[in-house]
Amino acid sequence: MQQVLAISTQGLTKRFEHHYAVRDVDLQIQSGEVYGLIGPNGAGKTTLIRILAATEEPTLGEVYIAGEPLLRGQDNPSLKRQIGYLPDDFPLYDDLTVWDYLDYFAHLYQLREPHRTRRLHEILELVQLSHKRNSLIATLSRGMKQRLSLARTVIHEPTVLLLDEPVSGLDPIARVQFRDIIRTLQASGMTILISSHVLSDLAELCTSIGVMELGFLVESAPLADLYRRLSQQTLVISTLGAIAPLIAALKQCPECRVLATIPDQGEVRVQFTGSNETAADLLRSLVHAGIPLTQFHPEPANLESIFLTLEHQQTA
Amino acid sequence: MFTLPHRLKEKNPQFAREVKGRLKPRNVLTTVLLSALAQLLLLASYYSQLPGVESTSAKFPDVYNRFCTITRESFSYRACTQDALGNWVVDWQMWWQEIVGVISWALPLLLLTSAVYLLINDLGREERRGTLNFVRMSPERSQNILLGKLLGVPVLPYLGVALIVPLHLFAAIEGGIPLGYLAVYYGLILLLCAFWSLLAILFAWLGGNQGWLGVIALWLCYTTFAQVARHQPYQLKEAEGNLVLNLPNWWGLSTGKIEILLVFGLITLGPATLLLWKAANRRFRRPNATLLTRTQSYLATAFLQIWLLGFVVVSTNNARYPETMNDSLTLVLVANLGWFLCLMAILLPHRQTLIDWARYRRQQVGCQRTGRQIPLLSDLVFGENSPASGAIAMNLAIAVGINALWVSNWPVLSDRPDHRFEALFALVMAATSLLLCAMVAQLLLMQRSPKRAVWTATTIGGLLLIPPICLGVFITTYGITPLTLLWAFTVASPVLVWQSSGSLALLGWLSQITACALVTSTLTRKLIKAGESESKALLGSVRSDV
Q1: Domain ranges in chain A?
Q2: B161 burial via Cβ count (<10 Å: 0-12, 13-18, 19+)
Q3: In chain B, whose CA is at the least distance from the CA of A97?
Q4: CA distance B136 to chain A (A)
Q5: Residues 498-517, chain B: which have Cβ within 8 Å of A?
Q6: How does pLDDT run across A236-256, given as a tens digit for each residue?
Q7: Which of these, A147, A152, A154, lies nearest to A170 by C-alpha position?
Q8: CB atoms < 10 A from the CB of A307, how many?
Q9: A7-229 maps to which CATH number?
Q10: Domain A232-300: which topology?
């Protein structure tokens, strides 16, 4: 039996004047996935997320959350119970305490006792704000406010969580805390769509990646698949001696293209298109040429290089 | 066992949130003290006006005071008498009635002013900061959120006013005012409060955040209501138990009678409040949609016509002169002008909606799902995103239809056999000029300028005011000339029917129709251009470059 997709869109389009913010996007996200949405500023990520969260009406196209269509101009109450949305700005009620704020939203999401109080405790523990439950929101730090906003977003245990730039403006410790929370939420079975410019975070968290460019979804695939298809093997080669002989020897290798040189450290980064056997041949030839090598290893693939490759491909 | 606050929170979390933030002990205590102090001051002020230790002299032996029981009257004051114990004999009923009058005047003023001011400020702030968007995302019904805001935001003024009610009731009983009257009074106040509060909410959601502006508008409108409420006790006494107010007849019923006043108030304020309630709910759910659906606008227009006719039907049925009937028609036309201007603001979709409609009309969600295309005519009349000219035309047709029935039943006058036909023609001309006005507004709203709404409002305002004034001056100076035809392009086009010859009026109407056709053609061209696919637009620009 075919599994129902957590998020599915068909021909989703949004125009502002004659400019397409989102253009004919067919997005499919499997249940339980952590889907990273990347792309340059103005690519349409925020608009896409806002449409999925039902806070923006699409010009054209349809949205299904867990198989249920999002009906325009309707209240969509059952659908709203399945969606949690954290936008990149998160205005809060400064006059309320942390507990009262979450309690207010728990009521709005129609959580009933005794589940409601239990959920409030759980969620405060998850976002590490139990000790601040009676503090006024106005007194919280930015990181705490961010975590409180996330707590409000997941108070009703949505099946789909939409996060737009959730770690922007956070310090490294707060980012680590935030990542841990996302992992916990994923483990609880939530499908998470996360848009971020911090690609290292996404590489750690995501199971699939979508790339947006000029409103189009130009790539959407499992992360492993992307690495396999698009990552370029880069070799890092260092020498104790002068760098010129090393570069001269590398020019003899047809599968090599020098990407960068760091003369102070005697290091060269090479784009290598050959197989493992060719790499072994290259290493042997460099040793035979008398170059005193200190390093010869492939650099692990990363999301940033894939993103740059894709952008390059698209521009071309 | 659940406590009351707990149940309240379960029932309406929005109300509970508003109340919790406001009903803090210090605020409650201040409100209670202020309310008590105001009541004490009022009683003390009236107590000081009672006959006291005024000195009398041989030359002026009498003490005059308006609260004394009547023995004989000198000017507007009453001469006082003393009982066997030397106490002044006071007309306590009148004394209490005056207190009721003051409270009846102040109570709605306090209630409405504070509610309007606080609601505009609170919702304006929420809308500006974006906090309401999270509430919108919750599955809580919009009705509950609105109700929570309406009752919760002004909860402190409500409390203060509620504390005045016992004194009001006591004074009314002592003043011999029937409790039925008070019930009607409170009923109307509640409706009025709902009406103004919803108006304040809509104002805030349409971008207004100036509470004082709402208060000024309220105070201007309040004057009429306050006059009615304030003078009732005196009139009650004068009419010996029968409440008679100087209000116009409505469908032959005297609205001066208390039962009719209640029905009239309910019929007037009830549907208006319901309409605002629907608009506020719709606005909350869909901030970018028009305030009302087109079907709602048709119902509202039909209701308004019947309501308006209530004021004029009796007078025209008994009229002997055509001028009396034309005056009644003018009254209806002026009221309709106001309503149709509001309708334009409510129904005209904005540029983006029209561009999307023009581009994707055939691919809209409904069409995709059902696989059936909505006919253009039906889309123009009932659709949400199509140009509103069709909907305005439909509203005008409803208004003209209902008023035409009224006009055709006017009495026939032997000396002016064609006055009914003239009136019907005036109706049609007024409707055509309003349609032209709506089409121009729609065209202006298609501009690229980010301030197109302001531009449209200014242009339409200018078109409404300046040409009739200029033409009025011209006609009084030079009399009827071919230039009188220009009246046809103003909202006062019926003047052409009443002031000029029949042929000139017909020519004027034909000119209106031609102007409408021209504006429609321009609008259609713009829409077709806006609806062009990108490839077509691109090819077009390439071709023009070549």
Answers
A1: 7-229, 232-300
A2: buried
A3: B21
A4: 8
A5: none
A6: 889 888 888 888 888 888 888
A7: A147
A8: 21
A9: 3.40.50.300
A10: Alpha-Beta Plaits (3.30.70)
